[in-house]
């Protein structure tokens, strides 16, 4: 056979150092991108939770207005808890109708309610609605004739 020759070294299967480094770099890049996406997702979830909490606080404040709290024109403010505060402005609006009906004869007063819920110093959301009030409600409660 081959008497003077040394046997050919067999080539071993495996990865070269460059292939391993390229795979590691790709893994590090994809891992970094995945962490950025996860971080952004967590931030969006937190903001969404804060806006939901603000909406729930606003709904609770608006629900008691006219039932437990009198509707009085002016500006009021307060705290819901240690994170969320509110500022409410109530103004009386004119009642009008396009059909030329004299709405001033109606025993109603119309109020515009604007509620701003704030948190973390610079975040806020505004809610607005109108409320009508029977202007003779006190007389009706006392049983007086109108």
Chain-wise SSE layout:
Layout: H1 17-64, E1 74-79, E2 84-93, E3 108-119, E4 123-134, H2 137-142
Antiparallel strand pairs: 1-2, 2-3, 3-4
Number of helices: 2
Strand content: 25-35%
The gyration radius over C-alpha positions equals 35 Å
Distance between the termini: 129 Å
- Overall 3D geometry? rod-shaped
Low-confidence stretches: none
| Structural class by secondary-structure content | alpha+beta
Strand order of the largest sheet: 1-2-3-4
Q: How many strand elements?
A: 4
Could you tell me the mean pLDDT? 85
CATH topology of the domain at 51-142: Pantoate--beta-alanine Ligase, Chain: A,domain 2
How is the main sheet built? 4 strands, antiparallel
Order of helices and strands: HEEEEH
Quaternary structure state of the chains depicted? single chain
Report the CATH architecture of the domain at 51-142. Answer: 2-Layer Sandwich
What is the CATH C level class of the domain at 51-142, in words?
Alpha Beta
Give the % helix. 25-40%
